[in-house]
Amino acid sequence: MAENAYIKLVSSSAKKEINIDEVKELFHYYKSITAKTGDQVDWEFGEAAFPYDIKETTEGAGKWFYLHSDNDRYYAILVGTDKETVTAENGEAFEQSYIQVTLPEGCTFGDKGKANEFCKFLAKKLQAELHLFNGRVMYYNPRK
What we know:
- The protein is α+β, with helices and mostly antiparallel strands and 144 residues long.
- It is built from three helices and seven strands; from the N terminus they run E-H-H-E-E-E-E-H-E-E.
- Strands 2-3-4-5-1-6-7 form a seven-stranded antiparallel sheet, with helices on one face.
- A hairpin with an 8-residue loop joins strand 2 and strand 3.
- It is globular, with a radius of gyration of 16 Å.
């Protein structure tokens, strides 16, 4: 059965909305900074830190993409964006953007570890609320 994690852009997040192209840019940024770390320590860290290729299908264009790996320790991770209607404490309803990270059937423990790492990176960059695969919540957003 597939597992899901959510990075929710709450009112105190750095951004209020995000689209799939912005998420791809964050993954490209992640890939570049890990490659620079590898250059500093003279090791191919970039490939170990991001062993995936970003792929997009015609049906998912503009909504989701997937990370696919040919490495035997990894398989795939799905990443998509959407909005949900949330009711505030005062009863007011508003739309909230989120990024959904899905581990499909057939994924490995390596995929789950990398997905957790990517979720934490995205949540920290966006100052968002991270709902992990195990149901726990991590708050990277400024709180009162």
